[in-house]
Protein backbone atom coordinates (compact mmCIF):
# COMPACT_ATOMS: atom_id res chain seq x y z
CA UNK A 1 0.00 0.00 0.00
CA UNK A 2 1.26 3.45 -0.87
CA UNK A 3 0.47 6.24 1.57
CA UNK A 4 0.52 9.99 0.91
CA UNK A 5 0.47 11.90 4.19
CA UNK A 6 -0.53 15.55 3.74
CA UNK A 7 1.77 15.93 0.75
CA UNK A 8 2.34 19.35 -0.78
CA UNK A 9 4.73 20.28 -3.57
CA UNK A 10 5.82 23.83 -4.30
CA UNK A 11 8.04 24.99 -7.17
CA UNK A 12 9.40 28.52 -7.40
CA UNK A 13 6.96 29.52 -4.65
CA UNK A 14 3.99 28.20 -6.60
CA UNK A 15 1.83 25.39 -5.20
CA UNK A 16 1.77 22.43 -7.63
CA UNK A 17 0.08 19.97 -5.24
CA UNK A 18 -1.72 20.85 -2.01
CA UNK A 19 -2.23 18.59 1.01
CA UNK A 20 -2.80 15.27 -0.69
CA UNK A 21 -3.78 12.70 1.90
CA UNK A 22 -4.44 9.25 0.48
CA UNK A 23 -3.91 5.52 0.93
CA UNK A 24 -3.80 3.52 -2.28
CA UNK A 25 -4.07 -0.24 -2.07
CA UNK A 26 -6.17 -1.08 -5.16
CA UNK A 27 -4.49 -3.08 -7.94
CA UNK A 28 -5.49 -0.76 -10.80
CA UNK A 29 -5.58 2.98 -10.15
CA UNK A 30 -6.15 5.66 -12.79
CA UNK A 31 -5.22 9.33 -12.60
CA UNK A 32 -6.98 11.85 -14.81
CA UNK A 33 -6.93 15.62 -15.08
CA UNK A 34 -6.34 18.56 -17.37
CA UNK A 35 -2.92 19.59 -18.69
CA UNK A 36 -1.04 21.38 -15.93
CA UNK A 37 -3.32 20.05 -13.18
CA UNK A 38 -0.38 18.51 -11.28
CA UNK A 39 -1.01 14.86 -12.17
CA UNK A 40 2.49 14.25 -13.61
CA UNK A 41 4.07 15.76 -10.50
CA UNK A 42 1.78 13.55 -8.43
CA UNK A 43 2.85 10.49 -10.46
CA UNK A 44 6.53 11.35 -9.96
CA UNK A 45 6.05 11.37 -6.18
CA UNK A 46 5.33 7.64 -6.27
CA UNK A 47 8.92 6.68 -6.99
CA UNK A 48 10.76 9.60 -5.51
CA UNK A 49 11.46 11.52 -8.72
CA UNK A 50 9.72 14.41 -6.97
CA UNK A 51 10.14 14.97 -3.26
CA UNK A 52 7.34 16.58 -1.25
CA UNK A 53 7.88 20.07 0.10
CA UNK A 54 5.70 19.01 3.03
CA UNK A 55 4.38 15.62 4.11
CA UNK A 56 5.63 12.14 3.23
CA UNK A 57 5.19 9.29 0.75
CA UNK A 58 5.68 5.71 1.93
CA UNK A 59 5.33 2.29 0.34
CA UNK A 60 4.39 -0.39 2.86
CA UNK A 61 5.75 1.89 5.58
CA UNK A 62 9.08 2.53 3.80
CA UNK A 63 9.90 6.08 2.75
CA UNK A 64 12.78 7.92 1.10
CA UNK A 65 13.64 8.28 -2.57
CA UNK A 66 15.99 5.28 -2.64
CA UNK A 67 13.46 2.82 -1.20
CA UNK A 68 10.69 4.15 -3.43
CA UNK A 69 12.84 3.85 -6.57
CA UNK A 70 13.82 0.32 -5.62
CA UNK A 71 10.20 -0.83 -5.44
CA UNK A 72 8.32 1.50 -7.78
CA UNK A 73 8.92 1.33 -11.52
CA UNK A 74 8.17 4.26 -13.79
CA UNK A 75 7.27 4.22 -17.50
CA UNK A 76 7.52 7.58 -19.26
CA UNK A 77 5.43 8.91 -22.12
CA UNK A 78 8.31 8.95 -24.58
CA UNK A 79 10.39 5.74 -24.56
CA UNK A 80 13.23 7.56 -26.35
CA UNK A 81 13.86 9.39 -23.09
CA UNK A 82 13.82 6.20 -21.07
CA UNK A 83 16.11 3.98 -23.12
CA UNK A 84 19.73 4.56 -22.13
CA UNK A 85 21.78 2.03 -24.11
CA UNK A 86 22.00 1.60 -27.89
CA UNK A 87 21.32 -2.18 -27.84
CA UNK A 88 18.15 -3.68 -26.34
CA UNK A 89 19.68 -6.31 -24.04
CA UNK A 90 22.25 -3.82 -22.75
CA UNK A 91 19.48 -1.36 -21.91
CA UNK A 92 17.58 -4.07 -20.03
CA UNK A 93 20.75 -4.80 -18.05
CA UNK A 94 21.10 -1.16 -16.98
CA UNK A 95 18.60 -1.21 -14.09
CA UNK A 96 19.75 -4.67 -13.01
CA UNK A 97 23.37 -3.51 -12.79
CA UNK A 98 22.16 -0.67 -10.59
CA UNK A 99 20.63 -3.29 -8.31
CA UNK A 100 24.00 -5.04 -8.18
CA UNK A 101 22.83 -8.34 -9.70
CA UNK A 102 25.21 -10.93 -11.17
CA UNK A 103 25.36 -11.81 -14.87
CA UNK A 104 23.42 -15.09 -14.57
CA UNK A 105 20.59 -13.49 -12.62
CA UNK A 106 20.44 -10.61 -15.10
CA UNK A 107 20.26 -12.98 -18.05
CA UNK A 108 17.55 -15.08 -16.39
CA UNK A 109 15.38 -12.05 -15.61
CA UNK A 110 15.80 -10.58 -19.11
CA UNK A 111 15.02 -13.92 -20.77
CA UNK A 112 11.86 -14.31 -18.66
CA UNK A 113 10.49 -10.86 -19.50
CA UNK A 114 11.37 -10.98 -23.21
CA UNK A 115 9.77 -14.43 -23.53
CA UNK A 116 6.64 -13.42 -21.63
CA UNK A 117 5.90 -10.57 -24.04
CA UNK A 118 7.24 -12.26 -27.20
CA UNK A 119 10.07 -9.75 -27.54
CA UNK A 120 12.99 -12.22 -27.86
CA UNK A 121 13.59 -11.18 -31.47
CA UNK A 122 14.43 -7.65 -30.30
CA UNK A 123 17.19 -8.72 -27.88
CA UNK A 124 20.14 -7.72 -30.12
CA UNK A 125 18.44 -4.90 -32.02
CA UNK A 126 19.65 -1.29 -31.98
CA UNK A 127 17.18 0.65 -29.85
CA UNK A 128 16.98 3.67 -32.15
CA UNK A 129 15.89 1.42 -35.01
CA UNK A 130 12.84 0.03 -33.18
CA UNK A 131 9.30 1.18 -33.95
CA UNK A 132 7.48 3.38 -31.41
CA UNK A 133 5.46 0.40 -30.15
CA UNK A 134 8.54 -1.78 -29.80
CA UNK A 135 10.40 0.98 -27.94
CA UNK A 136 7.56 1.37 -25.44
CA UNK A 137 7.46 -2.40 -24.87
CA UNK A 138 11.24 -2.38 -24.27
CA UNK A 139 10.85 0.57 -21.88
CA UNK A 140 8.24 -1.47 -19.98
CA UNK A 141 10.50 -4.54 -20.07
CA UNK A 142 13.33 -2.42 -18.62
CA UNK A 143 11.10 -1.69 -15.65
CA UNK A 144 9.71 -5.22 -15.28
CA UNK A 145 13.13 -6.90 -15.10
CA UNK A 146 13.68 -4.93 -11.88
CA UNK A 147 10.60 -6.65 -10.39
CA UNK A 148 8.96 -3.61 -8.83
CA UNK A 149 5.93 -3.94 -6.55
CA UNK A 150 4.18 -1.00 -8.15
CA UNK A 151 4.45 0.46 -11.66
CA UNK A 152 3.53 4.04 -12.51
CA UNK A 153 2.84 4.80 -16.17
CA UNK A 154 2.72 8.45 -17.24
CA UNK A 155 0.61 8.64 -20.42
CA UNK A 156 2.47 5.67 -21.92
CA UNK A 157 0.24 5.23 -24.98
CA UNK A 158 0.14 8.83 -26.23
CA UNK A 159 2.70 8.17 -28.99
CA UNK A 160 1.35 4.74 -29.98
CA UNK A 161 -0.98 3.74 -32.80
CA UNK A 162 -4.20 1.85 -32.06
CA UNK A 163 -2.65 -1.59 -32.56
CA UNK A 164 0.35 -0.90 -30.34
CA UNK A 165 -1.84 0.80 -27.74
CA UNK A 166 -3.97 -2.35 -27.47
CA UNK A 167 -0.90 -4.56 -27.30
CA UNK A 168 0.67 -2.38 -24.62
CA UNK A 169 -2.49 -2.24 -22.52
CA UNK A 170 -2.99 -6.00 -22.84
CA UNK A 171 0.49 -6.41 -21.37
CA UNK A 172 -0.35 -3.98 -18.56
CA UNK A 173 -3.60 -5.77 -17.70
CA UNK A 174 -1.88 -9.12 -17.26
CA UNK A 175 0.75 -7.78 -14.83
CA UNK A 176 0.44 -8.90 -11.24
CA UNK A 177 1.91 -5.64 -9.86
CA UNK A 178 -0.11 -2.71 -8.57
CA UNK A 179 -0.55 -0.26 -11.48
CA UNK A 180 -0.99 3.51 -11.43
CA UNK A 181 -1.84 4.85 -14.88
CA UNK A 182 -1.92 8.55 -15.76
CA UNK A 183 -3.91 8.95 -18.96
CA UNK A 184 -5.95 11.34 -21.05
CA UNK A 185 -7.37 8.32 -22.86
CA UNK A 186 -10.31 7.46 -20.61
CA UNK A 187 -11.01 4.16 -22.42
CA UNK A 188 -7.79 2.77 -20.95
CA UNK A 189 -9.27 2.98 -17.47
CA UNK A 190 -11.93 0.42 -18.31
CA UNK A 191 -11.89 -2.24 -15.59
CA UNK A 192 -9.81 -0.16 -13.18
CA UNK A 193 -10.59 -0.30 -9.47
CA UNK A 194 -10.21 3.36 -8.59
CA UNK A 195 -9.76 6.67 -10.39
CA UNK A 196 -8.45 9.96 -9.01
CA UNK A 197 -9.32 13.24 -10.69
CA UNK A 198 -6.70 15.91 -10.05
CA UNK A 199 -7.37 19.58 -10.68
CA UNK A 200 -5.50 22.64 -9.47
CA UNK A 201 -3.08 20.48 -7.50
CA UNK A 202 -5.81 18.75 -5.48
CA UNK A 203 -7.72 15.48 -5.68
CA UNK A 204 -11.18 16.77 -6.56
CA UNK A 205 -12.80 13.38 -7.11
CA UNK A 206 -11.84 9.90 -5.98
CA UNK A 207 -13.74 6.66 -6.38
CA UNK A 208 -14.98 4.09 -8.86
CA UNK A 209 -14.13 4.89 -12.48
CA UNK A 210 -17.65 5.53 -13.83
CA UNK A 211 -18.76 8.38 -11.53
CA UNK A 212 -15.30 10.02 -11.44
CA UNK A 213 -14.93 9.92 -15.25
CA UNK A 214 -18.54 11.13 -15.69
CA UNK A 215 -17.82 14.16 -13.47
CA UNK A 216 -14.59 14.86 -15.33
CA UNK A 217 -16.13 14.69 -18.81
CA UNK A 218 -19.15 16.77 -17.69
CA UNK A 219 -16.73 19.51 -16.62
CA UNK A 220 -15.02 19.38 -20.02
CA UNK A 221 -18.17 20.24 -22.03
CA UNK A 222 -17.60 23.31 -24.25
CA UNK B 1 29.38 6.09 -34.61
CA UNK B 2 29.33 3.06 -32.37
CA UNK B 3 25.61 2.30 -32.26
CA UNK B 4 25.20 2.68 -36.03
CA UNK B 5 28.37 0.91 -37.11
CA UNK B 6 28.45 -2.14 -34.87
CA UNK B 7 28.43 -5.29 -36.97
CA UNK B 8 27.19 -8.39 -35.19
CA UNK B 9 29.64 -11.28 -35.23
CA UNK B 10 31.52 -13.84 -33.21
CA UNK B 11 35.07 -13.35 -34.48
CA UNK B 12 38.22 -13.20 -32.39
CA UNK B 13 38.02 -9.41 -32.51
CA UNK B 14 34.37 -9.40 -31.46
CA UNK B 15 35.21 -11.60 -28.49
CA UNK B 16 38.38 -9.75 -27.47
CA UNK B 17 38.12 -7.68 -24.29
CA UNK B 18 37.27 -4.06 -25.09
CA UNK B 19 40.07 -2.76 -22.88
CA UNK B 20 42.62 -4.82 -24.85
CA UNK B 21 41.21 -3.46 -28.12
CA UNK B 22 41.36 0.13 -26.89
CA UNK B 23 44.93 -0.31 -25.61
CA UNK B 24 45.98 -1.99 -28.87
CA UNK B 25 44.48 0.94 -30.77
CA UNK B 26 46.45 3.42 -28.65
CA UNK B 27 49.71 1.49 -29.29
CA UNK B 28 48.93 1.20 -33.02
CA UNK B 29 48.20 4.93 -33.40
CA UNK B 30 51.27 5.94 -31.39
CA UNK B 31 53.49 3.65 -33.48
CA UNK B 32 52.06 5.06 -36.68
CA UNK B 33 53.03 8.58 -35.62
CA UNK B 34 56.40 7.68 -34.12
CA UNK B 35 57.88 6.18 -37.28
CA UNK B 36 57.87 8.32 -40.44
CA UNK B 37 58.48 5.63 -42.99
CA UNK B 38 56.53 4.15 -45.88
CA UNK B 39 57.36 0.66 -44.63
CA UNK B 40 55.47 1.41 -41.41
CA UNK B 41 52.45 2.60 -43.44
CA UNK B 42 52.61 -0.61 -45.48
CA UNK B 43 52.83 -2.83 -42.39
CA UNK B 44 50.02 -0.89 -40.69
CA UNK B 45 47.91 -1.23 -43.83
CA UNK B 46 48.45 -5.00 -43.81
CA UNK B 47 47.55 -5.15 -40.12
CA UNK B 48 44.30 -3.23 -40.67
CA UNK B 49 43.42 -5.40 -43.67
CA UNK B 50 44.12 -8.53 -41.62
CA UNK B 51 41.95 -7.13 -38.82
CA UNK B 52 39.06 -6.56 -41.23
CA UNK B 53 39.44 -10.09 -42.60
CA UNK B 54 39.55 -11.69 -39.13
CA UNK B 55 36.48 -9.72 -38.03
CA UNK B 56 34.60 -10.79 -41.19
CA UNK B 57 34.15 -7.19 -42.28
CA UNK B 58 33.66 -6.10 -45.89
CA UNK B 59 35.32 -3.24 -47.81
CA UNK B 60 32.07 -1.24 -47.67
CA UNK B 61 32.41 -1.08 -43.86
CA UNK B 62 35.79 0.60 -44.33
CA UNK B 63 34.36 2.97 -46.93
CA UNK B 64 31.50 3.87 -44.57
CA UNK B 65 34.01 4.62 -41.80
CA UNK B 66 36.08 6.89 -44.07
CA UNK B 67 33.19 8.68 -45.75
CA UNK B 68 32.47 11.25 -42.95
CA UNK B 69 36.16 12.28 -42.99
CA UNK B 70 36.46 12.35 -46.79
CA UNK B 71 36.41 16.13 -47.29
CA UNK B 72 38.74 16.71 -44.34
CA UNK B 73 41.22 14.26 -45.88
CA UNK B 74 40.87 16.02 -49.24
CA UNK B 75 41.56 19.39 -47.56
CA UNK B 76 44.62 18.05 -45.72
CA UNK B 77 45.88 16.50 -48.96
CA UNK B 78 45.46 19.75 -50.89
CA UNK B 79 47.19 21.84 -48.20
CA UNK B 80 50.12 19.39 -48.02
CA UNK B 81 50.54 19.33 -51.82
CA UNK B 82 50.62 23.13 -51.73
CA UNK B 83 52.97 23.41 -48.72
CA UNK B 84 55.20 20.39 -49.41
CA UNK B 85 54.87 17.84 -52.21
CA UNK B 86 52.66 15.06 -53.51
CA UNK B 87 54.64 12.30 -51.77
CA UNK B 88 54.30 13.85 -48.30
CA UNK B 89 50.60 14.65 -48.89
CA UNK B 90 49.95 11.02 -49.86
CA UNK B 91 51.91 9.81 -46.84
CA UNK B 92 49.97 12.00 -44.40
CA UNK B 93 46.50 11.15 -45.64
CA UNK B 94 47.42 7.44 -45.78
CA UNK B 95 48.35 7.70 -42.12
CA UNK B 96 45.09 9.46 -41.22
CA UNK B 97 43.03 6.98 -43.22
CA UNK B 98 44.74 4.08 -41.41
CA UNK B 99 44.02 5.69 -38.06
CA UNK B 100 40.34 6.00 -38.92
CA UNK B 101 40.16 2.43 -40.22
CA UNK B 102 41.94 1.05 -37.15
CA UNK B 103 39.56 2.96 -34.85
CA UNK B 104 36.60 1.70 -36.87
CA UNK B 105 37.85 -1.87 -36.34
CA UNK B 106 37.25 -1.28 -32.62
CA UNK B 107 33.85 0.38 -33.06
CA UNK B 108 32.66 -2.17 -35.64
CA UNK B 109 33.37 -5.07 -33.30
CA UNK B 110 32.45 -3.54 -29.91
CA UNK B 111 28.95 -2.83 -28.62
CA UNK B 112 28.36 0.32 -26.63
CA UNK B 113 27.89 -1.73 -23.46
CA UNK B 114 31.18 -3.58 -23.96
CA UNK B 115 32.89 -0.28 -24.73
CA UNK B 116 31.55 1.24 -21.53
CA UNK B 117 32.60 -1.86 -19.57
CA UNK B 118 36.07 -1.47 -21.09
CA UNK B 119 36.27 2.15 -20.00
CA UNK B 120 35.12 1.16 -16.51
CA UNK B 121 37.73 -1.60 -16.37
CA UNK B 122 40.37 0.89 -17.51
CA UNK B 123 39.38 3.24 -14.71
CA UNK B 124 39.38 0.47 -12.10
CA UNK B 125 42.64 1.67 -10.55
CA UNK B 126 41.77 5.36 -10.81
CA UNK B 127 41.59 7.25 -7.49
CA UNK B 128 38.35 6.99 -5.51
CA UNK B 129 37.28 10.54 -6.36
CA UNK B 130 37.04 9.66 -10.08
CA UNK B 131 33.33 8.95 -10.79
CA UNK B 132 33.96 5.80 -12.84
CA UNK B 133 30.36 4.65 -13.23
CA UNK B 134 29.21 8.15 -14.14
CA UNK B 135 31.93 8.52 -16.77
CA UNK B 136 30.94 5.17 -18.28
CA UNK B 137 27.25 6.14 -18.27
CA UNK B 138 28.04 9.53 -19.84
CA UNK B 139 29.83 7.78 -22.71
CA UNK B 140 26.93 5.40 -23.20
CA UNK B 141 24.44 8.28 -23.21
CA UNK B 142 26.52 10.16 -25.76
CA UNK B 143 26.35 7.17 -28.07
CA UNK B 144 22.62 6.78 -27.44
CA UNK B 145 21.92 10.47 -28.02
CA UNK B 146 23.62 10.74 -31.43
CA UNK B 147 20.83 9.02 -33.41
CA UNK B 148 18.25 10.76 -31.22
CA UNK B 149 19.61 14.24 -31.95
CA UNK B 150 19.96 13.33 -35.61
CA UNK B 151 16.27 12.33 -35.78
CA UNK B 152 15.27 15.58 -34.00
CA UNK B 153 17.37 17.54 -36.50
CA UNK B 154 15.69 15.83 -39.47
CA UNK B 155 12.22 16.33 -37.94
CA UNK B 156 12.77 20.04 -37.28
CA UNK B 157 14.27 20.58 -40.75
CA UNK B 158 11.30 18.82 -42.39
CA UNK B 159 8.82 20.86 -40.33
CA UNK B 160 10.54 24.05 -41.46
CA UNK B 161 10.65 23.01 -45.10
CA UNK B 162 6.91 22.20 -44.88
CA UNK B 163 6.35 25.79 -43.73
CA UNK B 164 8.38 27.17 -46.63
CA UNK B 165 11.51 28.09 -44.66
CA UNK B 166 14.77 27.83 -46.59
CA UNK B 167 18.16 27.36 -44.94
CA UNK B 168 18.31 29.27 -41.66
CA UNK B 169 20.79 27.96 -39.14
CA UNK B 170 19.34 29.86 -36.14
CA UNK B 171 15.80 28.70 -36.85
CA UNK B 172 17.14 25.15 -37.11
CA UNK B 173 19.42 25.10 -34.07
CA UNK B 174 17.15 26.77 -31.50
CA UNK B 175 14.36 24.14 -31.56
CA UNK B 176 16.90 21.31 -31.87
CA UNK B 177 18.81 22.52 -28.79
CA UNK B 178 15.58 23.10 -26.82
CA UNK B 179 14.23 19.65 -27.67
CA UNK B 180 17.58 18.00 -26.95
CA UNK B 181 17.77 19.64 -23.53
CA UNK B 182 14.21 18.50 -22.79
CA UNK B 183 15.18 14.96 -23.85
CA UNK B 184 18.25 15.17 -21.59
CA UNK B 185 16.15 16.34 -18.66
CA UNK B 186 13.67 13.47 -18.97
CA UNK B 187 16.42 10.95 -19.59
CA UNK B 188 18.11 12.07 -16.37
CA UNK B 189 14.81 11.42 -14.54
CA UNK B 190 14.45 8.04 -16.24
CA UNK B 191 17.95 7.07 -15.11
CA UNK B 192 17.10 8.03 -11.54
CA UNK B 193 13.87 6.07 -11.81
CA UNK B 194 15.91 2.97 -12.66
CA UNK B 195 17.78 3.08 -9.34
CA UNK B 196 20.96 4.79 -10.59
CA UNK B 197 22.58 6.64 -7.68
TrEMBL record, chain A:
Signal peptide: none annotated. One of its GO terms (molecular function) is ATPase-coupled transmembrane transporter activity. It comes from the Bacteria. Residues 2-222 form the ABC transporter domain. Pfam families: ABC_tran. One of its GO terms (cellular component) is ATP-binding cassette (ABC) transporter complex. Keywords: ATP-binding, Nucleotide-binding, Transport. CDD domains: ABC_cobalt_CbiO_domain1. SUPFAM superfamilies: P-loop containing nucleoside triphosphate hydrolases. Belongs to the ABC transporter superfamily. This is ABC transporter ATP-binding protein. It comes from Pontibaca salina.
TrEMBL record, chain B:
GO terms for cellular component: plasma membrane. It holds the Pfam family CbiQ. It comes from the Bacteria. Keywords: Membrane, Transmembrane, Transmembrane helix. The chain crosses the membrane at residues 22-49, 69-89. It is a multi-pass membrane protein. InterPro entries: ABC/ECF_trnsptr_transmembrane. It is found in: Membrane. Its main location: membrane. Belongs to the CbiQ family. This is Energy-coupling factor transporter transmembrane protein EcfT.
